[in-house]
Specification:
The complex is a heterodimer of chains A (151) and B (415). Chain A is mainly beta. Chain A is built from one helix and ten strands, in the order E-H-E-E-E-E-E-E-E-E-E. Chain A has a single domain, classed as Immunoglobulin-like (Sandwich), CATH 2.60.40.3340. In chain A, the strands form two sheets. In chain A, strands 1-10-9-5-6 form a five-stranded antiparallel sheet, with helices on one face. Chain B is globular. The chains are: A mainly beta (151), B mainly alpha (415).
């Protein structure tokens, strides 16, 4: 697996309406060893895959920390999905996300954040996949996207 | 040999090791595969790959269960009329398929008989993935009224009353068949059949030798792989993108796809494929979430727990392995295509209007109709390219069978 270059990131950001940055706010999910982070106007999402390397056709899980920033409401939930834009299809499986911690994201940038565990993901083809993190709070959803290339 | 001659020899050897020199003696040639092509080729091996026992089947890998399963696989008493066995459709000499367009037990069925070679590597079983484990899949033809048309009572009676089978059942499961639980006996018969089928693994192929030679950098050995197969392989991992679905050492990603094959059955009904399979899976008491799974953690059920059912599953069928594909004509879920050449032509000239469509408007507001899935597109291969892909596919057939075609004489010495 490798992360796709800038072009794909721009496309993903346009699609998602969120900027996809490799640099995390250091305080959100900093206790998740090996986590990667995404950031949008209202949220930081840090995530780690289990197992660490995603392989074609193998189930994996995500440990997620979502933190509000800039006065955004605290995350209630995070929905996770994946899509192959060049193929026009997503996964054959639906991830189930469960809360694994208390949301403490009322501060401008919560230090602990809301914690979730997503199970049931499986990417069944090599190629570019967009991982979607839909942060849901107060009746609104903000999508953060990470593009990866599975080899 | 002089020092100068030695130096010349070494230089010549080096020149033949590195590109662009591709000749490797005896006129053999190795194509100048790119790094990306080599990476994709290497993903299709090594073969055979590691196997671990099935946690949902407590007799997986158990020699006594394998022995019992083999006997049952070939036993014609496992059919209502006493004339058919599993091997009537999964014929060893025909790659454990039957060579027919549509399978036939007591009656002809709607689908082509898939080979059971390498079946142990599957995630889903049957063309529609209606089962998530091999022991449940082994029960499907036993109970289907068009195939072997048995009942759990008939199967249990056989295991109770035949001294040899009863003895071997006890050896495999550590206890005699339960006298008052026919369904438990039936499931154990499925588990013994599964234990036997897990041993049916194909041998090495010319492609495997080529792939392993590439992996160790032995260009001379790699160049022995026929040139037409090399060109076909380049299409397979290149402009054909065949490797996207036929991925990994078993040449399948184990999932499902719609590929524009007609789905009307002979009676005029539609074969919904995966859509129907998921419904069957979720209704089955033999699935990996059910009481008969021996996997106490239920970790093997993760795919069944999360699989989605929706319109995207209409007319999808399982992507088969391509190992030994030359032995299992005709092809596709309903035997629609007679030869490997027909298969390659089907993809090369694929009619996208036969696929499910999505209706939308482009940025100028003009209505458009596009296939839901964007992977498949006509390649318009030349006849030579088609022949090359067929040559590659033929190279996926084992040189020497990994499974004995003739069963050794079995003693009846268990009482």
């Amino acid at each position: 697996m490798r992360e796709e270059g800038g072009v794909f990131k721009v496309i993903a950001a346009l699609v998602a309406g969120a900027s996809s940055l490799a640099v995390a706010a250091p305080t959100c999910g900093s206790d998740l060893r090996g986590a990667q982070a995404l950031e949008s106007a209202g949220y930081v999402v840090a995530y780690r895959t289990q197992p660490p390397k995603i392989e074609v056709g193998k189930h994996f899980s995500l440990d997620i920390v979502a933190c509000a920033k800039g006065g955004a409401p605290a995350p209630d939930n995070v929905a996770v999905d994946a899509f192959m834009p060049e193929h026009g299809h997503g996964m054959n499986y639906k991830a189930v996300v469960k809360s694994s911690g208390t949301a403490k994201a009322a501060k401008p940038l919560a230090k602990s954040g809301a914690r979730f565990r997503a199970d049931g993901l499986m990417l069944h083809m090599p190629g570019r996949w967009d991982l979607y993190f839909d942060v849901q709070s107060a009746g609104t959803t903000e999508r953060l996207t990470r593009s990866i290339v599975l080899e | 040999m002089t020092r100068r001659a030695l130096l010349l020899f070494a230089l010549a050897a080096l020149a033949c090791w590195f590109p662009p020199c591709a000749a490797a003696g005896n006129g053999a040639q190795l194509l100048d595969f790119t790094r990306d092509e080599v990476r994709r080729i290497l993903q299709h091996g090594p073969w055979p790959f590691a196997w671990s026992r099935d946690p949902s089947n407590r007799v997986s890998g158990n020699p006594a269960a394998i022995e019992l399963g083999e006997r049952l696989f070939f036993d014609t008493r496992l059919s209502s009329a006493g004339a058919l066995s599993c091997a009537a459709c999964h014929v060893p000499e025909k790659g454990f398929a039957d060579g027919r367009k549509l399978g036939a037990g007591l009656e002809e069925v709607d689908r082509n008989t898939p080979s059971v070679l390498n079946v142990r590597y599957n995630r889903w079983f049957g063309w529609d993935g209606g089962n998530d484990n091999l022991w449940a899949q082994s029960l499907r033809p036993l109970l289907d009224g068009r195939e072997l048309a048995l009942t759990d009572r008939r199967v249990a009676d056989l295991m109770h009353n035949d001294l040899e089978l009863n003895c071997r059942y006890r050896r495999a499961f550590g206890a005699p068949p339960a006298p008052a639980d026919d369904e438990a006996v039936l499931v154990n018969v499925g588990k013994a059949l599964a234990a036997y089928q897990e041993t049916l693994v194909t041998g090495r192929t010319p492609f495997d030798d080529f792939r392993d030679a590439l992996a160790r950098g032995d260009r001379r050995a790699a160049a022995r792989y026929p040139a037409d197969a090399q060109r076909g392989l380049r299409i397979f991992v290149g402009k054909g993108s065949c490797h996207v679905c036929h991925f990994g050492p078993n040449f399948t990603n184990g999932e499902f796809h719609e590929i524009g094959i007609p789905v009307l059955r002979k009676l005029g009904s539609v074969d919904w494929g995966r859509y129907q399979g998921i419904k069957m899976l979720q209704a089955s008491r033999f699935n990996l979430e059910g009481q008969y799974s021996d996997d106490a953690t239920r970790s093997t059920a993760v795919y069944s727990r999360h699989v989605t059912l929706g319109p995207q599953n209409y007319e999808q069928f399982r992507i088969p392995s391509l190992r030994n594909v030359a032995l299992t004509a005709p092809y596709m879920h309903n035997g629609h295509l007679a030869t490997l050449g027909d298969v390659v032509r089907h993809y090369s000239e694929i009619d996208l209007t036969l696929m499910h469509q999505v209706h939308l408007y482009d940025s100028d507001g003009v209505p458009q109709t596009l296939p839901v899935d964007k992977i498949l597109k006509p390649l318009h291969l030349s006849e030579r390219e088609i022949d090359d892909v067929v040559a590659f596919l033929n190279s996926l057939t084992e040189k020497r069978t990994g499974v004995p075609l003739k069963r050794a004489a079995r003693k009846s010495d268990c009482r």
